[in-house]
Amino acid sequence: MSQPDYTLFYKKRFLLSDPVLRSSSWDFFISCFDRSERVRELYDGVHAREKLWLISPRYNIKANELPTENKFISIGADEAELVNEFFKSYQRPWEQSSVCIDITGFLKPELLYMIRNLSRLGVSKVHVLYSEPSRYALDHLTRFTNSVPLYTRAVFGFEGAHVQATDTDTLVIGVGYDDDLLSRIAKHKTRTKKVPIFCLPSLQADMYQQSRLRASMVKQDVEDSGLSYFAPANDPFVTAQVLQDTIDRLNKSKPITNLYLSPLGTKAQALGFALYYLYEKQNTATSIIYPFTEEYTPGTSRGISKVWLYTVELP
């Protein structure tokens, strides 16, 4: 079976004021509320027959701060319970409908499982919106979690059929801002080769430097292989292509036994990790792993810069 060329997938960039959003319409629109302007404004600007808010308990947002529109509130203990309860509550003809998701406010494990579940429901194509922030609230000091990571595990739906560990096991990390998460994921797989993928081009001119600054705090944990790769912060398809090219190159040098992927960068990059896994790594010794914490910080961004529309075809 030939490998997919992810760069052929369709994407479009526009401003919130452009007519593209107003001229588009879907049967269902799903967004995850996180108190940020860019999530709220995109929700208000989208045209859809039915709009649905997903409320993640991990944000711990007070009831009086939640939106008044149609919303699903879950106390699910994990990403699978949350998403499964959502689809059980909203039994719609998903596979026969046009579906759009704004991934901006989603927590990454919940985003990954949402994409996985749509594929299982028979949805072959989903439109995905992602809005770039003008800046993060505290620049390079921005914290995306309110507590230390408690444990690391595979994201449900992305668990691999692993074999006995060897010296060719490899961990590919999509590098983000949170050095606690970076350190936790690297130390979870102490004996694996670490290969970081940095966000470049970044969402804003200074964000790459801010990310490198945070990563430098745990440089000895993350960059032990001496290898660094780069993928755009706003392009899931190029991210998937970079993963394909990078892992093919590593395999040619010395075949990887167990492969671990950890998307700690932007939501758009996390979507790229999911696509690469679903197209090429199901039923192999590959997992997407993530450092989980009890509570995440809502509303970490300020303003809205650009909006992306990705047309995602699911295997």
General description of the model:
The chain has 315 residues and is of the alpha/beta class. It folds into two domains: 6-137 and 300-313, Rossmann fold, CATH 3.40.50; 140-292, 3-Layer(aba) Sandwich (Rossmann fold). It is 30% helix and 24% strand. It has a seven-stranded mixed beta sheet. A six-stranded mixed beta sheet has the order 8-13-12-9-10-11, sandwiched between helices. Helix 8 (236-253) crosses helix 9. The longest helix has 18 residues, at 236-253. The radius of gyration is 18 Å and the shape is globular. The chain starts with 10 loop residues before the first strand and ends with a strand.
Question: What's the SSE blueprint?
Answer:
Elements: E1 11-14, H1 19-23, E2 25-32, H2 37-45, E3 47-55, E4 71-73, H3 79-89, E5 99-102, H4 108-120, E6 125-131, E7 135-136, E8 151-154, E9 170-174, H5 179-188, E10 193-199, H6 207-216, H7 219-222, E11 229-231, H8 236-253, E12 259-263, H9 267-281, E13 286-292, E14 301-302, E15 307-313
Parallel strand pairs: 2-3, 2-5, 3-4, 5-6, 9-10, 9-12, 10-11, 12-13
Antiparallel strand pairs: 1-15, 6-15, 7-14, 8-13
Helix pairs in contact: 3-4, 4-9, 8-9
Entry summary:
With 315 residues, this protein is α/β, with parallel strands linked by helices.
Q: What's the architecture of the largest domain in CATH terms?
A: 3-Layer(aba) Sandwich
Q: C-alpha Rg, in Å? A: 18 Å
The low-pLDDT segments are 203-219
Average predicted confidence as pLDDT: 86
Helix content range of the residues, please? 25-40%
CA-to-CA gap between the ends? 13 Å
